[in-house]
Amino acid sequence: MHRFSYRNGRLMCEGVAVEEVAREVGTPLYLYSYNTILDHFRKVKSAFSPVGALVCFAAKANSNMAILRALAKAGAGFDVVSGGELKRVLRAGAHPKKIVFASVGKSIAEIELAVKTGILFFNVESAQELERIESVCRRLRRRQRISLRVNPEVDPHTHSFITTGHRASKFGIDRKTVIKLFQRTAEFPHLAFEGLHIHIGSQILEARPFRAAIERALLLVEEAKRHGVTIGTLNIGGGLGIVYHKETPQTARDYAKAVLPVLKRSGLKVILEPGRFIVGSGGILVTRVLYLKSSHGRQFAIVDAAMNDLLRPSLYGAYHDIWPASANGRLRPARYDVVGPVCESGDFFAKNRKLPKLHPGDLLAVMGAGAYGFVMSSNYNSRPRAAEVMVRSNKWYVVRKRETFEEMIQSEKIPPFLR
Ligand SMILES: Cc1ncc(COP(=O)(O)O)c(C=O)c1O
Predict the structure, then answer these.
(1) Helix axes 34-47, 252-266, angle to 10 degrees
(2) Residue 239 and residue 290: Cα distance in Å, rounded?
(3) Ligand 1 contacts CB of residue 80 (under 6 A)
(4) What is the pLDDT of residue 108?
(5) Is the CB–ligand 1 distance for residue 61 below 6 Å?
(6) Which residue, 20, 86, 240, 321, could crosslink 277 as a Cys pair with Cβ 3.0–4.6 Å?
């Protein structure tokens, strides 16, 4: 349940009118509901409390410092995938022993930073990476816990770009190689092989693939024992789906109900890495209609946000609901392609979408934009990045100011021969 709803015909985020923030901050603008995000974090935490799970928010989904800080204060751990994310979550107040580090391509500098920080686990994605972590730990004279990320070869029935646990995926290590690595632990005296990690994909709507992947991972835990390796922690990844359109995803409680019996029986410590579930429906992208035009029978609503602000529709053909910020007296609907100003045909938010009759200047909210929204934004077409605002009850706070033209070009340099 999110906290965006209409009051007297005005779209509200908690107790704040979306129009009011847009008028003061301008558009395009990301608007986050603090209480929605916290509520979703607490839902996962409490659903998995019977196994005392550590919930590590996947910072890639939304790494705004205010959101990271809010979650850190609520007791969240973090799943990071780069040195930049690691630095962000530390700056936001994360406890090092609540940080896990995934990514198929960790650099030496990133490994060194994470070892010195004293993170809980590296989620290791290849034999070569394991060797590299060992050599960094040897040089630093440190011992480090690691989880092997096993590819469980399970199809989670989601978009192919966000499927990560099948055979052809670049993610994880296949079962045979994992077993070979269990046989080689003596070669890694600075590493403690204490965990297994799985993450099968994102926007997964049912529990079955999760349960299948967990059961496969537990077989490997048994196999590890036969090689003298005691796995004490299972990281079951993220992937919980949310409502974008007409989906009926499992709740955190449904998910827990389906997997807790096996997890409890295993006696293992449990880590989860949800991203989308925590922040997805807690954010919207607010945009203003610039122009309307019709062409060959199609009606276009050209808005001031674009694919550089929210890439998901262009990248995955993702569906996002679009709500008008004001619902007064707009009963005659029409169909629109809602498109941005960027010079790409893929720059759209909706196709042939039924909306109340629009006028230039109208404000629209692209719903469910809190996850994989701002974090994927770019300066394509030299468009400065949008502002981000957090609402808590009836107060709002700019948590990232709109980028200026000067900020956008500040790292660029003209070489002397062109001056
Ligand atoms: C290793 C890992 N953990 C967690 C997540 C978060 O997934 P979601 O946002 O679907 O919960 C991802 C997403 O790509 C991931 O790659």
Answers:
(1) 30
(2) 36
(3) no
(4) 98
(5) yes
(6) 240
For 273-306, what is each residue's pLDDT tens digit?
Answer: 999 999 999 999 999 999 999 999 999 999 999 9
DSSP label at residue 200: -
Q: How far apart are CA 336 and CA 211, in angstroms?
A: 41
CB of 58 closer than 6 angstroms to any ligand 1 atom = yes
From the candidates 13, 56, 137, 343, which is the catalytic residue? 343
- CA 318 to mean position of chain CA atoms: 15
pLDDT value for 163: 60
356-384: per-residue pLDDT in tens? 999 999 999 999 999 999 999 999 999 99
Whether 355 shows a pLDDT value over 70: the answer reads yes
Q: Which atom of ligand 1 approaches the CA of 275 most closely?
A: 9
- Percentages helix, strand, coil for the chain (3-state, rounded to 5) are 35, 25, 40
Q: Give a three-class secondary structure readout of 94-152.
A: CCHHHEEECCCCCCHHHHHHHHHHCCCEEEECCHHHHHHHHHHHHHHCCCEEEEEEECC
Residue 331's pLDDT band (boundaries 50, 70, 90)?
A: low
**How do strand 10-13 and strand 77-80 relate by DSSP bridges?**
unpaired
Residue 330: pLDDT over 60? no
Beta-ladder partners of 391: 33, 396
Q: Is 137 a catalytic residue?
A: no
For the chain, domains (ranges, CATH) are: 4-32+280-409 (2.40.37.10), 103-272 (3.20.20.10)
CA of 199 to the centre of ligand 1 (A): 7
Cis preceding-peptide flag for 416 (omega within 30 of 0): no
The percent of residues in the chain predicted with pLDDT above 90, rounded, is: 93
- Kindly tell me if the per-residue pLDDT of 161 is higher than 70: no
Q: Residue 232 pLDDT > 60, yes or no?
A: yes
Pick from 76, 99, 62, 121: nearest CA to 280:
62
The rounded percent of the chain whose pLDDT value lies above 70 is 96
Q: Which residue type, as a one-letter code, is found at position 148?
A: L
Alpha-carbon span 304 to 287, nearest angstrom: 6
Identify whether the C-beta of residue 357 lies closer than 8 Å to the C-beta of residue 334. yes
